[in-house]
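Quick note —
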Amino acid sequence: QVQLVESGGGSVQAGGSLRLSCADSGRTFSSNRMGWFRQAPGKEREFIAGISASGRITNYADSVKGRFTCSRDNAKGTMALQMSSLKPEDTAIYYCAASTMGQYAYWGQGTQVTVFS
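Predicted structure written out below.
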């Protein structure tokens, strides 16, 4: 079973960087497509980045393309989201998720990212 735990959130000034991590204590990490989502106050949760099971293919929402980079280390059972050039509108709770049978079925508890100007 997949069990996800995010870490690395915090507060940062606009223009700064943060690195989020997602660790999976389950046994099937390397076979799951993974993704990052975020939810800002008063808004619906939105997809921001995805990565294939092998890690070779990534895709991003237009709002973060060129600023965020998603990567994974299957040997360690971890996924990362490197966030640069952060903006106040990036403020949200960030979640990692694992896909199974084409749907994101497993979710972490979320980590808060706050960007202040």
